[in-house]
Amino acid sequence: MAVLALAAAVASACTDDSASSDTTLAGPATSGTTVSPEPAESTSPPTTEAPQRALDRVRPPEANTVAELLALRRPIVIAHAGGDFEAPHSTMFAFTTAALAGADVLEMDVMLTADRQLVVQHDDTVDRTTEASGRVRDLDYGTLAALDNAYWFAGDTWSNQGLDPGAYSLRGVRTGDRPAPEGFGPDDFRIETFRSVATAFPDHVLDVEIKVPTGDDGQPDLAWAQEGAEALAAEITALGRDESVIVVSFDDDVLTAFRAAAPTVATSPGLDTLISWYGGAQVDFAPSDLVFQVPPFYAGVEVLTAPVVARAQADGFAVWVWMDDTSTQENEEFYIAMLDRGVDGLLVSRPSVAVDVVSGRSS
Fold first, then answer.
1. pLDDT at 30
2. How many CB atoms lie within 10 A of CB 253?
3. What is the CATH number of the domain that holds 354?
């Protein structure tokens, strides 16, 4: 996310899925003779080997901590929401697919549900990815987990609701109306908790953005986001992930709340801090700030130029670029252009393409 932010444009412990929900919102040998014993007749049904889960084929990446990641002598690939142009946004299917493709880092957004579960979710509402509608903060996790989080996925964009129904090739896997791809099951297409994703990928660095939801008054609800920041800090500590998670938010106050609760966990500066730095002001960065997560453009101005990248690196920060115009930037050519500017990481929706690009440059 980006100048993290610079930007809004310069800008993943489940309950039982069986819970229903309204998805509308929705013989001995003789002497001197050797005799082989007859095999006992089995009274048990024949066993068949269970098919291997795709997740079981995921191997540890080259770097398992933030420190190891930043010490790599090559650019890294961060899978945005698991690679939301290649798989349904923020699903276990997406994160697994990205990890199998060779992504170094799994990126996700988190927020709290009505029953204070920390879930992997980008939007305030479930409208853009599921068959239902409603705010995440108004729904309990049992209700959310039952939804089809691949309902509107058609590839090349993480949500496109204007297509023929046949275009949504993974719609219905979650609900059992369509068979799951080999190695996966219905649960791989639900809304996940942060804990479930962090537990499933213990060896991958996680890049986690704390979202700031909208309140009843239509304004950003910082108190709700700060509560989410504290919940995230508690989860990271409980899971022993202090060295393998990096946290970011557009809002500096939310990051302040997180740093107070988890001072040793790596962070990226917030939007206001990055804007001040970009403008040349003297900035007191937090000791945990290690990476600038920035878009190529901010407010129509190209901010991620080669000199800006070099300046950030000279100040001791790695630079990860996230794409603010997915219609023109999520492609091999643009990824190469960003690497030519010296960026240290590509935060992308097509991680398999980015992995190929980085591998090609490293070979």
1. 34
2. 15
3. 3.20.20.190
